[in-house]
Design a protein that fits this description.
heterodimer, A: mainly beta, 11 strands, B: mainly beta, 5-stranded antiparallel sheet, about 0% helix
Protein backbone atom coordinates (compact mmCIF):
# COMPACT_ATOMS: atom_id res chain seq x y z
CA UNK A 1 0.00 0.00 0.00
CA UNK A 2 0.88 3.65 -0.29
CA UNK A 3 3.39 4.87 2.26
CA UNK A 4 4.05 8.43 3.31
CA UNK A 5 7.23 9.07 5.25
CA UNK A 6 7.66 12.15 7.39
CA UNK A 7 10.86 13.36 9.01
CA UNK A 8 11.76 14.22 11.69
CA UNK A 9 9.37 12.51 14.10
CA UNK A 10 10.03 15.09 16.74
CA UNK A 11 12.08 18.23 17.06
CA UNK A 12 12.85 20.69 19.81
CA UNK A 13 14.06 24.11 18.78
CA UNK A 14 14.67 27.49 20.33
CA UNK A 15 12.37 30.40 19.77
CA UNK A 16 13.34 32.37 16.68
CA UNK A 17 14.89 29.50 14.78
CA UNK A 18 13.49 27.76 11.72
CA UNK A 19 12.54 24.11 11.37
CA UNK A 20 12.12 22.10 8.19
CA UNK A 21 9.82 19.07 8.01
CA UNK A 22 9.98 16.67 5.09
CA UNK A 23 7.17 14.59 3.68
CA UNK A 24 7.90 11.90 1.12
CA UNK A 25 5.67 9.57 -0.82
CA UNK A 26 7.71 6.37 -0.92
CA UNK A 27 6.00 4.19 -3.48
CA UNK A 28 3.83 6.56 -5.45
CA UNK A 29 3.88 9.99 -6.98
CA UNK A 30 1.90 12.68 -5.21
CA UNK A 31 1.13 15.78 -7.20
CA UNK A 32 -0.79 17.07 -4.23
CA UNK A 33 0.08 16.82 -0.57
CA UNK A 34 -1.69 18.30 2.41
CA UNK A 35 -0.25 19.72 5.58
CA UNK A 36 -2.28 19.51 8.76
CA UNK A 37 -1.67 20.78 12.26
CA UNK A 38 -3.10 19.16 15.35
CA UNK A 39 -3.07 20.67 18.82
CA UNK A 40 -3.49 18.37 21.83
CA UNK A 41 -6.91 16.76 21.99
CA UNK A 42 -8.08 18.65 18.96
CA UNK A 43 -8.87 17.80 15.39
CA UNK A 44 -6.65 18.02 12.36
CA UNK A 45 -6.72 21.46 10.83
CA UNK A 46 -5.73 21.83 7.21
CA UNK A 47 -2.97 24.38 6.88
CA UNK A 48 -2.23 24.25 3.20
CA UNK A 49 -2.38 22.24 0.02
CA UNK A 50 1.01 21.62 -1.51
CA UNK A 51 1.04 21.41 -5.30
CA UNK A 52 3.99 20.00 -7.20
CA UNK A 53 5.64 22.65 -9.32
CA UNK A 54 3.45 25.50 -8.19
CA UNK A 55 2.67 27.61 -5.17
CA UNK A 56 0.92 26.13 -2.21
CA UNK A 57 -2.64 27.06 -1.40
CA UNK A 58 -2.99 28.23 2.18
CA UNK A 59 -6.10 28.05 4.32
CA UNK A 60 -7.51 31.20 5.79
CA UNK A 61 -5.58 32.38 8.80
CA UNK A 62 -2.39 30.50 7.96
CA UNK A 63 0.57 32.79 7.35
CA UNK A 64 2.27 31.76 4.14
CA UNK A 65 5.44 33.67 5.02
CA UNK A 66 5.72 31.82 8.30
CA UNK A 67 4.90 28.35 7.04
CA UNK A 68 6.89 27.95 3.85
CA UNK A 69 5.90 25.03 1.66
CA UNK A 70 7.96 23.70 -1.19
CA UNK A 71 6.85 20.81 -3.42
CA UNK A 72 9.77 20.52 -5.81
CA UNK A 73 9.22 16.94 -6.92
CA UNK A 74 6.43 14.41 -7.20
CA UNK A 75 7.62 12.62 -4.08
CA UNK A 76 8.72 15.39 -1.73
CA UNK A 77 7.04 18.29 0.00
CA UNK A 78 8.65 20.33 2.75
CA UNK A 79 7.18 22.58 5.40
CA UNK A 80 9.45 25.13 7.01
CA UNK A 81 8.31 26.84 10.16
CA UNK A 82 10.21 30.11 10.14
CA UNK A 83 11.06 32.12 13.24
CA UNK A 84 9.30 29.58 15.41
CA UNK A 85 7.58 30.66 18.61
CA UNK A 86 6.24 28.57 21.50
CA UNK A 87 2.69 28.92 20.15
CA UNK A 88 3.84 27.06 17.02
CA UNK A 89 4.43 23.97 19.13
CA UNK A 90 2.12 21.36 17.72
CA UNK A 91 1.83 18.07 15.86
CA UNK A 92 2.31 18.59 12.14
CA UNK A 93 1.13 15.86 9.78
CA UNK A 94 1.39 15.58 6.03
CA UNK A 95 -0.80 13.47 3.82
CA UNK A 96 -1.33 12.56 0.21
CA UNK A 97 -3.78 10.55 -1.81
CA UNK A 98 -2.78 7.99 -4.35
CA UNK A 99 -4.08 8.84 -7.76
CA UNK A 100 -7.53 10.36 -7.92
CA UNK A 101 -8.88 13.01 -5.59
CA UNK A 102 -11.57 10.52 -4.59
CA UNK A 103 -9.02 8.23 -2.95
CA UNK A 104 -8.30 8.07 0.79
CA UNK A 105 -5.58 10.11 2.41
CA UNK A 106 -2.39 8.41 3.51
CA UNK A 107 -0.74 10.11 6.45
CA UNK A 108 2.84 10.45 7.48
CA UNK A 109 3.73 9.60 11.06
CA UNK A 110 3.69 13.25 12.01
CA UNK A 111 6.25 15.61 13.51
CA UNK A 112 5.94 16.83 17.05
CA UNK A 113 7.44 20.30 17.24
CA UNK A 114 8.30 21.86 20.58
CA UNK A 115 9.55 25.42 20.60
CA UNK A 116 11.24 26.53 23.80
CA UNK B 1 -16.39 27.12 3.96
CA UNK B 2 -17.19 23.51 4.55
CA UNK B 3 -17.76 22.49 8.14
CA UNK B 4 -17.92 18.99 9.53
CA UNK B 5 -19.40 18.49 12.96
CA UNK B 6 -18.86 15.31 14.91
CA UNK B 7 -20.51 14.13 18.09
CA UNK B 8 -20.04 13.12 20.81
CA UNK B 9 -16.63 14.52 21.71
CA UNK B 10 -16.01 11.79 24.25
CA UNK B 11 -17.58 8.41 24.91
CA UNK B 12 -16.81 6.13 27.81
CA UNK B 13 -18.20 2.62 27.60
CA UNK B 14 -17.94 -0.64 29.41
CA UNK B 15 -16.29 -3.36 27.42
CA UNK B 16 -18.96 -5.17 25.46
CA UNK B 17 -21.21 -2.14 25.05
CA UNK B 18 -21.89 -0.58 21.68
CA UNK B 19 -20.53 2.77 20.49
CA UNK B 20 -21.67 5.22 17.82
CA UNK B 21 -20.20 8.47 16.54
CA UNK B 22 -21.97 10.80 14.13
CA UNK B 23 -20.78 13.30 11.54
CA UNK B 24 -22.69 16.06 9.84
CA UNK B 25 -21.44 18.24 7.03
CA UNK B 26 -22.68 21.72 6.18
CA UNK B 27 -22.39 20.86 2.49
CA UNK B 28 -22.95 17.84 0.28
CA UNK B 29 -19.85 15.68 0.18
CA UNK B 30 -18.10 13.89 -2.63
CA UNK B 31 -17.20 11.15 -0.19
CA UNK B 32 -16.45 10.65 3.46
CA UNK B 33 -13.62 8.78 5.11
CA UNK B 34 -13.16 7.49 8.62
CA UNK B 35 -9.86 7.40 10.45
CA UNK B 36 -8.68 6.11 13.79
CA UNK B 37 -5.93 7.77 15.76
CA UNK B 38 -4.32 6.19 18.78
CA UNK B 39 -2.72 8.45 21.41
CA UNK B 40 0.61 9.71 20.11
CA UNK B 41 0.00 8.25 16.68
CA UNK B 42 -1.15 9.44 13.31
CA UNK B 43 -4.57 8.92 11.74
CA UNK B 44 -5.00 5.55 10.11
CA UNK B 45 -7.50 5.12 7.32
CA UNK B 46 -10.43 2.84 8.11
CA UNK B 47 -12.89 3.16 5.26
CA UNK B 48 -14.31 5.39 2.57
CA UNK B 49 -17.95 5.83 1.63
CA UNK B 50 -18.87 7.27 -1.73
CA UNK B 51 -22.43 6.39 -2.65
CA UNK B 52 -25.60 7.87 -1.23
CA UNK B 53 -27.03 5.56 1.44
CA UNK B 54 -23.97 3.34 1.38
CA UNK B 55 -23.39 0.92 4.26
CA UNK B 56 -20.11 -0.89 4.80
CA UNK B 57 -19.04 -3.33 7.48
CA UNK B 58 -15.65 -4.26 8.85
CA UNK B 59 -16.10 -7.00 11.42
CA UNK B 60 -17.70 -5.21 14.39
CA UNK B 61 -17.63 -1.79 12.69
CA UNK B 62 -20.53 -0.52 10.58
CA UNK B 63 -20.25 2.65 8.54
CA UNK B 64 -23.15 4.50 6.97
CA UNK B 65 -23.38 7.38 4.53
CA UNK B 66 -26.59 9.36 4.48
CA UNK B 67 -28.90 9.60 1.51
CA UNK B 68 -28.13 13.29 1.08
CA UNK B 69 -24.37 12.62 1.40
CA UNK B 70 -24.14 15.11 4.24
CA UNK B 71 -24.01 12.83 7.25
CA UNK B 72 -22.36 9.63 8.29
CA UNK B 73 -22.02 7.35 11.27
CA UNK B 74 -19.67 4.75 12.67
CA UNK B 75 -21.07 2.07 14.94
CA UNK B 76 -18.99 -0.42 16.88
CA UNK B 77 -20.73 -3.47 18.26
CA UNK B 78 -19.52 -5.03 21.49
CA UNK B 79 -16.53 -2.78 22.06
CA UNK B 80 -13.17 -4.18 23.08
CA UNK B 81 -10.25 -2.48 24.79
CA UNK B 82 -8.42 -2.50 21.48
CA UNK B 83 -11.05 -0.12 20.10
CA UNK B 84 -9.81 2.79 22.22
CA UNK B 85 -8.68 5.86 20.33
CA UNK B 86 -10.08 8.88 18.58
CA UNK B 87 -12.26 8.34 15.55
CA UNK B 88 -12.36 11.08 12.95
CA UNK B 89 -14.58 11.51 9.97
CA UNK B 90 -13.28 13.53 7.05
CA UNK B 91 -15.56 14.96 4.42
CA UNK B 92 -14.11 15.36 0.95
CA UNK B 93 -15.42 18.07 -1.34
CA UNK B 94 -15.36 18.04 -5.13
CA UNK B 95 -12.05 19.92 -5.15
CA UNK B 96 -10.38 17.09 -3.25
CA UNK B 97 -10.01 18.92 0.03
CA UNK B 98 -10.77 16.99 3.21
CA UNK B 99 -12.26 18.64 6.28
CA UNK B 100 -12.00 16.69 9.49
CA UNK B 101 -14.59 16.48 12.20
CA UNK B 102 -13.55 17.21 15.78
CA UNK B 103 -13.23 13.52 16.52
CA UNK B 104 -14.79 11.25 19.11
CA UNK B 105 -12.48 9.84 21.74
CA UNK B 106 -13.51 6.40 22.86
CA UNK B 107 -12.39 4.88 26.13
CA UNK B 108 -13.32 1.35 27.06
CA UNK B 109 -13.42 0.13 30.62
CA UNK B 110 -12.51 -3.54 30.91
Amino acid sequence: GAVVSQHPSWVICKSGTSVKIECRSLDFQATTMFWYRQFPKQSLMLMATSNEGSKATYEQGVEKDKFLINHASLTLSTLTVTSAHPEDSSFYICSAYLGQTNNPLHFGNGTRLTVT
Amino acid sequence: GQQVMQIPQYQHVQEGEDFTTYCNSSTTLSNIQWYKQRPGGHPVFLIQLVKSGEVKKQKRLTFQFGEAKKNSSLHITATQTTDVGTYFCAGRDNAGKSTFGDGTTLTVKP
